[in-house]
Structure formats: structure tokens, C-alpha cells
Design a protein that fits this description.
By secondary structure, the protein is α/β, with parallel strands linked by helices. The protein contains 29 helices and 27 strands. The strands form nine sheets. Strands 5-14-15-3-16-17 form a six-stranded mixed beta sheet, sandwiched between helices. Strands 21-24-25-20-26-27 form a six-stranded mixed beta sheet, with helices on both faces. Helix 12 packs antiparallel against helix 13, helix 23 runs antiparallel to helix 24 and helix 24 packs across helix 25.
Length: 794
């Protein structure tokens, strides 16, 4: 009896045998029939050069299938409202658990969205103020800047026992929205000279607003409205006519027998353009808005977005506007000091959320910070907050480079958070390039050997120590340490910044040297972006490349994004004596069956739609007649199928020689994208590839000063070397390069370092060091200095 019981105790339960996620035959994007086994309840790092297939395996295969299977558990009715996900191209996926994805996508750039609204901290704070605030002004929505105060009264008719009776009813909603700025915190003034040319008539093309051409629908609406004379110069308009043109409320009109709505230009611009955040606009619209509209802080609410009532109710002398403007670390201490049994559960939940901010290294933010202004790394960590206090276990957390935007000092903290999630019994999958973050992994999966078509294979699986000895590209570069340059370049001048005080900067005066490579460093939140983007980027002759992701549909590709297609189309048109539009798959040359998409989508209701290669053009996207025209022996679809390196040789000499195209290809090659196919949809590019594509596009712009915001984002250790070579070539060609960066290899390579700090938020905002990297290492006077010294082994 005893022997049987002991035997039963040592035999593991069958339910405990599922401790691996098995992937067999994964073929998403560039993956080549990948087979891999990932241990559950462990921290697994996925490494490899940018574009080797890490995201294809982790996000597009494992996480996507997990989400699709969860969606399928809902009823058909509910699924109709959810995004439809196609099954990834994989033979077997076994042992999946629920996946929670925390990616680098910047947060929605809605101007009404703040750090407080995104994390629900505002909702809890509003409850606290509605219960404890004096004077009491109403429910939690009385403190919401997204709810307007409305009141109304009138007669209501209803049946009562077969008799119709009338009663007078009143209603009122007390909201917190400032009536002047409608809860946005700023008001807009229009520069009328940028909306129209007063010397011209409407028919003569007076309007300079993008999209307002008189030969389209706008022309018909203006002409048919009868509010003004289309042939009269605008400067001769009466007050009434000008008011109708600019400010008229939506009015129903009939034009050529069709019912239409006429609306003044300014309310139309407010609805169509200004409802979006500036960062989310198309470049030409953004340029127009920056020219024509000035945003000033609302004079009524002082930028707090709240009306007088919401600002008047206080707890211990602090209003909700004051609380949201506080640095979160200070707000957390204030909330802990409120001892009110009546709202104890809310205070506890709010305190935990605010403590999570501090713990994750975002204590320097404030709740009223617009979410569109957060960097990629800050946005990712803000999304992490809701998962930190979660009591879920056996969940798969998927992180995309969680160390982006983190100073080496902050990476240690991030590692501890990832390990804490793992220790609760969760599987943590991390796509990562930083050696400090890879070092804490229990298991490493290295993809490669190269990028794009040269990658997509598993080149190593095992522990970090085994990776070091493996001889793979990642293994060889894992212990790379850039050394300090023996000699630094001499400056040719300075860019003066005086009295910089945006966000947390404390009246900073600094001289940024010209003609050299300058690196601006400091812990996250110390004021680097505020200094450079606030005081340098807007100047003439400065080209700034920010972290914002490339937005592009599957119709966009490297050729269209970089402007390469323009000279190529012209060269084809000239060689064949036809119009350039034929050589665009989005224009006259598009295959009529698939409209130039190359695939035909079949919508299957709430089931995943099916994309099949177009039978007529066989995925080439062009009409057959267009493919008969050649340049240098190749048709347009063959040119778009070339890699950058092949195209560089093709357009460099012979019949196809096109200098304008060759210059763009040279820049793409320079940033290390030689393997990329010209017609590859932008939606399939990795984060690092997009970053470099953007860099290549902006490098051609005229301007003596180039500002780069964390160009190492998404770059493998081997790619960083190439980036340093590129930065050197830019400086040697006569440009001044200013880089905001945390990567020690870039700091060590700099000619001049400006270090901000000493801490984050109101503990930062000062220049704590200016000088050469060697001086910074020797002094070790700042956090950056200590970490750089440790990195170069000084």
C-alpha cells in the first residue's frame, strides 16, 4: 500500500507535462519553415539582426494565433465587432496560453487623451474629488474635461391610463469641460492670409487650403451656394460674404438637384484637420496647419482643460487640476496622506497605480501630460502598468524591446519587472537587442543569419552563456565594447541655446558644437527631448528625425516612401514614350482585377478575410500591357522585385542609368538596407528597418544640422557599428549631427557629450556635464559617466 502511494506521488500528473510552446513549420513573412520549442514560465529572449524574423515568429505567429483562438471563443455576434485575424502560416502551434502584447506602438494621438485617462488614474481621482472635495459640486463627471455641462427643459407628452398627459421636465448634466477650449487646453487662432489669397477670386483659385480645388465638389458647393460672387476678389467681399465664407454654420443647400451641406472654411478645418493630433496628420496637412493655425494656452482655464466649478472644489487646498499637474511621484505621496475610510478602496487602488508609475521609472510624468507626446519607450511602459498589479498567472507576456528609451541605469529596473512577471508563473517572451537585457534571460532563441531573405532561420537556442560561445553574429557581438576615440574632432562653431525652460528644463543655457558628432544623454525624463525638440529642431537649416513610426498601407513600399519611384517612372516613360502614370500600381498602370494591390481580398463576414494572389497579374500589380515596356531589359515589376543592392548596380550604369534614383539607393545602402526589396510592403518591415528607412529619406534633405532621436532603436549590435560609420560619414561630409541616445557605443563614439540630469522630472532639467567622452569617464561625476566607464572598462 505504501509503495503504491509513493509511486503515485513521484509520477507527475499528466496536466503538468505541458511545459513547452511548440512551433512547427512557421512561414510568416521571411521565416523558413521554422521549428522551435519555448519553455513556459521562463523568460525567453529573441535576438538577431533587425529584419531577421524575430517579430514574425513572436508577434505574427505565436501572439497572433493566441489572440485569434481567444476571439473564436466569443459568439458570432460579438466576433462581428472584433478585428478579424487570419490564421498564421504555420503547420503546428501547441501549448499556447493567453497572450498579452505590450508593443512599441505610440499611443493614440487623440488630443483629449492624457496619461491619466489612458491608465484610469483620472477616473479614480475624479471619484475621490466628487466624495471629498469642498465645496461639493457633483458626481465624478463634474471633474471630467471630456463632459460638457448641459441643461434643458420642456414639455413631455405620455399616455397614462389611456389619457394623454403633459408634464414639464427639466434635466441638467454637470460636466467639468472648459467651455472656451472644449476641454482641449488650448485655443486656435487662424492666420487668414494662409487660408486665401485676398487678391484673387474664388473661381481664380484664391483658397490655399489643401484639397480645396474649384474643379471638384468644393467648387460646385461654393458656386451653387449663392452666398457670394465667385468672380469677385476676396478683398472686395462684404462683411456678410466674408463671414459666410469663413464662419457659416452647416446649412442645407441644393446644387444641380443634389442635396448638399455648405459649411464655412474654419469650422470645416476644425472638424476635418484639427480633430486629429498634429503628429497623426499627413505631412502636407501638418505643414499647412503649422503655417495657418497658432495654438495658444486657453486664457480661461489656463491649459487645465477644466471649468471654474471643477477647479474650485479642493481637498486640503489642492484642486483636481493641481493634482493632475503634479509630478506622479509627488501625487502618490499626497494620495497616501489622505486617510478617509469612506473612499479607502479607491484610494488604495489609486495609490497602487501611482506607485507602479514610480516603480517602472515614469514617476517624472504628470497625469495631465498628453499621451501623444510620450516617446515609444514611455508609451510601452505606460501600457505595462496595468499588467504589473495583475493577479493573472500562466499568461504569455510578449514585449517588443522594453528597454527602448531607457538609460543603462533604468534597464536594471526593467529587468527586475520582467523577472517579477516571470516569477508569478508567467511565460515572458522578449524581442531584445541590448546585452544587459539579454543577460537575464533563462533561454535565448537567436534568428538569422542575416536580415530579410537572408534570415528567417533559427541559428541558436540555449542559455546566454552558450550563446556567447556559439559563434553566431549575436554571440560574437554580445560582449562588444566600443572604445573611446583616441582623438575627437574640432568644432567649427556653436549653436547657442539660451533660457530653455519647456517641460522640466530649468532655464538651461548650453552651446552645442557644430561640425562634430554631439550626443545628448541623461536618464529617461531628464529633459533631453525637451531641450533638443523644444529649442533646436524648429530652427532653419535643422533637419529633425523623430521616433514617430512610419505610417503606410500595404500599397506603400520603400520605393514609394523614399520618393525613388518618381525618377524611375520618369525614366521608364522617357524610354518608351508613354506617360509616367502607367508605371504606378496606384494609378493608371494598376491591374484592373486587384486594383494594383497584387492580391484579391474576399470578405467572409466575421470570419477572417482571405487574401489570394491575383490570377490576372500573378501578384505583379500591373496590367499586362504595362509590363511590355522595358528599361535596360527589365519591366517595372522586375525592377520593384530587385533588392536595393541589385537596383543600385542597375541604375548606376548602362541604358538604365538614372542618377536621381541612384542617389536614393545609395542612401538606402548607406543605412544598411541593401537586402530590402524595393516593392516590399511597408507593413512587413520591422521596427529597426522602418527607423533606418526614415533616416535614409531625411538624409537627402537640405540642412546643415541633423538631429536624430535614438537612431539605435530596433538595431542589432552588429547594425550599431554600421550606424556609427554612417554618422561619421555624415559629419565628415560637413554636417553637424546631434543625437539623443542612451546606447553607450554611440556615447563612446561622440566628439562631445551633453549630459542632462541628475534625475528625472523635477529632479532633472539641468546640464550636469559638457565635454568629451574621455572627460566624462574620467570624472564619473554623473550616472551616465559611471555606466559609460563600466562599459568601456575604464
Amino acid at each position: 500500500m505504501t509503495a503504491t502511494r509513493t509511486e503515485a506521488a513521484t509520477t507527475p500528473h499528466v496536466a503538468d507535462s505541458h511545459d513547452l510552446i511548440r512551433v512547427r513549420g512557421a512561414r510568416e513573412n521571411n521565416l523558413k519553415d521554422v521549428d522551435v520549442e519555448i519553455p513556459k514560465r521562463r523568460l525567453t529572449a529573441f535576438t538577431g539582426v533587425s529584419g531577421s524574423g524575430k517579430s514574425s515568429l513572436v508577434f505574427a505567429t505565436i501572439a497572433a494565433e493566441s489572440q485569434r483562438m481567444i476571439n473564436e471563443t466569443y459568439s458570432a455576434f460579438v466576433q462581428g465587432f472584433m478585428p478579424t485575424l487570419a490564421r498564421p502560416d504555420v503547420d503546428v502551434l501547441d501549448g499556447l496560453t493567453t497572450a498579452i502584447i505590450v508593443d512599441q506602438e505610440r499611443m493614440g494621438a487623440n488630443p483629449r487623451s492624457t496619461v491619466g485617462t489612458v491608465t484610469d488614474a483620472n477616473a479614480m481621482l475624479r471619484i475621490v474629488f466628487s466624495r471629498l472635495g469642498q465645496p461639493h459640486i457633483g458626481s465624478p463627471q463634474a471633474f471630467s474635461f471630456n463632459v460638457a455641462s448641459v441643461s434643458g427643459a420642456g414639455a413631455v407628452t405620455f399616455d397614462k391610463g389611456g389619457v394623454q398627459t403633459k408634464e414639464r421636465r427639466e434635466f441638467s448634466v454637470t460636466g467639468g469641460m472648459c467651455p472656451r477650449c472644449e476641454g482641449r487646453g488650448d485655443v486656435q487662432d487662424f492666420d487668414l492670409s494662409q487660408l486665401y489669397d485676398a487678391d484673387k477670386s474664388l473661381a481664380g483659385g484664391a483658397l490655399t487650403v489643401p484639397g480645396y480645388t474649384m474643379d471638384g465638389w468644393y467648387g460646385r458647393i461654393f458656386a451653387g451656394s449663392g452666398f457670394f460672387d465667385m468672380d469677385k476678389p476676396i478683398r472686395d467681399f462684404t462683411k456678410r460674404e466674408l463671414a459666410d465664407l469663413l464662419h457659416k454654420e452647416p446649412t442645407k443647400i441644393k446644387v444641380e438637384g443634389i442635396n448638399l451641406t455648405y459649411e464655412g472654411i474654419i469650422p470645416k478645418i476644425r472638424k476635418s484637420m484639427l480633430a486629429k493630433d498634429v503628429d497623426a496628420m499627413q505631412p502636407h496637412i501638418r505643414a499647412f496647419v503649422e503655417r495657418a493655425v497658432t495654438f495658444t494656452t486657453c486664457p480661461e482655464c489656463g491649459g487645465t482643460r477644466l471649468n471654474e466649478g471643477a477647479r474650485s472644489s479642493k481637498i486640503r487646498g489642492i484642486s483636481i487640476a493641481d493634482a493632475c499637474a503634479m509630478q506622479i511621484s509627488d501625487l502618490a505621496a499626497w494620495v497616501r496622506g489622505l486617510d478617509e475610510p469612506s473612499v479607502a478602496p479607491v484610494l488604495e487602488a489609486l495609490g497602487e497605480t501611482l506607485d507602479s508609475f514610480v516603480e517602472i521609472g515614469l514617476g517624472y510624468l504628470s497625469l495631465d501630460r498628453p499621451s501623444g507626446t510620450l516617446s515609444g519607450g514611455e508609451a510601452q511602459r505606460t501600457k505595462m502598468i496595468r499588467h504589473l498589479g495583475s493577479s493573472l498567472t500562466d499568461v504569455t507576456y510578449v514585449f517588443d524591446e522594453p528597454t527602448i528609451g531607457l538609460h543603462p541605469h533604468d534597464i536594471q529596473r526593467m529587468n527586475e519587472l520582467l523577472l517579477r512577471l516571470r516569477d508569478k508563473g508567467n511565460t515572458v517572451l522578449v524581442v531584445e537587442h541590448k546585452p544587459e537585457a539579454i543577460a537575464v534571460a533563462d533561454h535565448v532563441v537567436d534568428l538569422g543569419p542575416r536580415a530579410g531573405a537572408g534570415g528567417g532561420e533559427i541559428v541558436f537556442q540555449g542559455t546566454v552563456d552558450e550563446l556567447r560561445r556559439s559563434g553566431t553574429l549575436t554571440g560574437r557581438h554580445l560582449d562588444d565594447r566600443a572604445s573611446l576615440k583616441p582623438a575627437v574632432r574640432t568644432r567649427t562653431g556653436v549653436l547657442e541655446v539660451r533660457g530653455a525652460s519647456s517641460h522640466n528644463l530649468k532655464d538651461v543655457d548650453v552651446d552645442l558644437p557644430l561640425g562634430v558628432l554631439t550626443v545628448v544623454t541623461g536618464v529617461a525624463g531628464s529633459g533631453k527631448s525637451s531641450l533638443i525638440h523644444g529649442s533646436v529642431s524648429k530652427r532653419d537649416g535643422v533637419v529633425a528625425i523623430d521616433q514617430g513610426g512610419i505610417r503606410g498601407s500595404r500599397r506603400s513600399n520603400p520605393a514609394t516612401y523614399t520618393g525613388l519611384l518618381e525618377p524611375v517612372r520618369k525614366a521608364f516613360a522617357k524610354a518608351n514614350g508613354v506617360k509616367p502614370a502607367l508605371f504606378s500600381a496606384n494609378s493608371a498602370g494598376a491591374c484592373p482585377t486587384c486594383n494594383g494591390a497584387g492580391v484579391v481580398y474576399t470578405d467572409l463576414g466575421m470570419m477572417a478575410g482571405v487574401a489570394t494572389t491575383c490570377e490576372e497579374c500573378e501578384g505583379r500589380r500591373f496590367q499586362a500591357s504595362v509590363l511590355e515596356y522595358t528599361l535596360g531589359g527589365k519591366d517595372i515589376s522586375q525592377v520593384l522585385a530587385m533588392s536595393v543592392t541589385e537596383a543600385e548596380a542597375f541604375f548606376g550604369e548602362g541604358d538604365a542609368r538614372t542618377p536621381a534614383a541612384h542617389a536614393v539607393l545609395d542612401r538606402l545602402s548607406d543605412v544598411g538596407l541593401g537586402y530590402l526589396s524595393l516593392g516590399q510592403p511597408l507593413t512587413t518591415l520591422s521596427g529597426g528597418e522602418r527607423q533606418r528607412l526614415k533616416l535614409a529619406t531625411h538624409m537627402g534633405e537640405k540642412g546643415g544640422v541633423l538631429v536624430l532621436d535614438e537612431p539605435t532603436t530596433g538595431l542589432h549590435l552588429a547594425d550599431v557599428e554600421q550606424l556609427l560609420g554612417l554618422l561619421d560619414r555624415l559629419v565628415d561630409s560637413g554636417k553637424s549631427v546631434i543625437v539623443i541616445e542612451h546606447h553607450q557605443a554611440v556615447m563612446a563614439h561622440a566628439d562631445w557629450i551633453v549630459d542632462l540630469g541628475p534625475g528625472a522630472g523635477h529632479d532633472g532639467g539641468r546640464v550636469v556635464f559638457e565635454g568629451t567622452p574621455a572627460d566624462l569617464v574620467a570624472a564619473r561625476s554623473t550616472l551616465t559617466g559611471e555606466h559609460l566607464a563600466a562599459y568601456v572598462g575604464a
